Amino acid sequence: MQFRHLGRSGLKVSEISYGNWLTHGSQVEEDAARACVHAALDEGITTFDTADVYAGTRAEEVLGRALKGQRREGLEIFTKVYWPTGPGQNDRGLSRKHIFESIHGSLRRLQTDYVDLYQAHRFDYETPLEETLRAFDDLVRQGKVLYVGVSEWRADEIARALEIADEMGFDRIVSNQPQYSMLWRVIESEVVPLCEKEGVGQIVWSPIAQGVLTGKYLPGQPPPPGSRATDDKGGADFVKRFLTDDVLTRVQELKPIAADLGLTMAQLAVAWVLQNPNVSSAIVGASRPEQVRENARASGVKLDADVLKRIDDVLGPVVERDPAKTVSPRTRP
Question: What is the pTM of this model?
Answer without folding.
Answer: 0.92
